[in-house]
Each structure stands twice: as C-alpha cells, then as structure tokens.
Amino acid sequence: MAEFATQLRLARRVALQVLASLFLVSLAWVLVYRWVSPPATWLMLERRSHRPEANYGGLLPEDASRKIHYRFVTLREVSPQLPLALVAAEDQRFLMHHGFDTDAIIKAAKHNFGEKGGGIRGGSTISQQVAKNVFLWQGRSYVRKAAEAYFTVLIELLWGKERILEVYLNIAEMGDCVFGAEAAAQKHFGRSAKSLTPSQAALLAAVLPNPLKFQAGHPGPQARTKQQRVLRNMRRLGGTKFIGAILD
C-alpha cells in the first residue's frame, strides 16, 4: 500500500511537470509570434504536400503547381478596406468580444441542430480561426477544440486585437496555395494589398468560407451576392473609421 502511494505521488509529480512544461512552451510560442511572422501554418504544409481531393468543377487542375504563395505584410501595408471587409464578413463583433462570441455560437448551434439541409454554420471568431490555423493541426476533435479555446485565450491576452487581425489577414487561405492579403491581391487582381479597392477587398472576404470553390479571380453568382452583402456590412460598421479604432 505504501509503495502504491509513493508511485501515485510520483505519477502526479511527473504529470504536473509535463503540464507545466507544455504551458511554458505554448506561452513562449505565442509570445514569439507576437513579434515574429509565422513562417508557415499546418494548412500551408498540407496544401504544399498534395492538392485537395475535390477539383471543384475543374477549378483545381491536377497538374497545378503546389508552390505556396505567402508573404507576410503589416496591417499598415494593407489597404484598410481589407481588414474592414474581413471583419464585416467573418466577425462583426470582433472589437466587442474577448475571443468568443457567445451569440454567434448559440445561433450556429440552433442552426446546425435545428435545421435540415441548411449546411453546417460555424460560430468561430477571427481570434479562434487564428488560434487553430497558426498553432494547431487540421481536423476535428474535442481535444483540438479545447486546444483552440486555450490558444484563443492566450492570443487575446498576449497579442491584442491589432496583432490578431494582422496575422489573420496574412495566414487566411484565399485560393489554392494562396495565403494572405499580399499573395491574394497579386494573384487575383495583379496589384498590391495596399491598393485594393473596397469592391476587391469585399470579394476576397466573400470567398473565405471556401476559397477553393469560390475563387476571387473568377467569381460566380454566389460570390458576387456575398460580396454585395459584405460591402453593405462595411458601410454599416462605419467604413475605415472602424479599422482606425484598432490602429489607434
């Protein structure tokens, strides 16, 4: 009995040491990315290794290059229209919540469990999307969801809204092997992210739910419809003054 108690205390001590080590490593990782640009994300590595299984009606040919297009730019090197469009499309309560939008989560749950044939609706905030895309692997599980919540809390505490939005507009997938504002602007419109127009910014934000199926360079009726909705939301938020509140 005494030997069992000793082994239990040892196991508890080892477990606490492992947890403390994981916490310190994750804390250091988040702090490094507070100032250093992420060199890549898990999704970038996945796209680099193989093409998506679906070709979306020929939009993704099998012989397409797997070279990743990604160049990190600061928030001030991007037209304010784009961060405004991303917030208008993805997370209009971005400045109001602390990483989790309970209203959006409840609405998504009601939709997903209460409606048939309407498709799955997500309730993730921009902060949650950054946490899972920068720090976590692809896939769905309760463990991953818990880790996503953990990293969301960390970046909200250690980064702040400006850095979260800056990282988001750089690592978001905006086409096959195209990640971030600068790469997407060059790929789809032949211009820098700094010179994007409101209409172009809204189109990039409009395809984010599925940038492989709805391509900003070849928008269909659905993408155009959402583009107009994003433009209305951009005006409703107060235009670029809304983004000015983040930069100040």
Ranges with pLDDT <50 over ≥5 residues?
A: none
Distance between the termini: 63 Å
| Average residue pLDDT | 86
As laid out across the biggest beta sheet, the strand order is: 1-3-2
CATH architecture: Orthogonal Bundle
Written as H for each helix and E for each strand, in order along the chain, the element string is HHEHHHHHEEHHHH
Number of domains: 1
CATH superfamily: Biosynthetic peptidoglycan transglycosylase-like
Work out the number of β strands. 3
Class from helix and strand fractions: mainly alpha
CATH topology: Penicillin binding protein transpeptidase fold
CATH class designation: Mainly Alpha
Structural Rg: 20 Å
From the spread of the alpha carbons, the general shape counts as globular
Q: How many DSSP H or I helices?
A: 11
Q: What is the percentage of strand-forming residues?
A: under 5%
Structure characterization notes:
Keywords: Cell inner membrane, Cell membrane, Cell shape, Cell wall biogenesis/degradation, Glycosyltransferase, Membrane, Peptidoglycan synthesis, Transferase, Transmembrane, Transmembrane helix. GO terms for molecular function: pentosyltransferase activity; peptidoglycan glycosyltransferase activity. Belongs to the glycosyltransferase 51 family. Its EC number is 2.4.99.28. The protein is mainly α. It has a single domain, classed as Penicillin binding protein transpeptidase fold. The protein has 11 helices and 3 strands, in the order ααβαααααββαααα. The protein has a 3-stranded mixed β-sheet, with helices on one face. Helix 3 crosses helix 10. The termini are far apart. The model has no long low-confidence stretch (mean pLDDT 86).
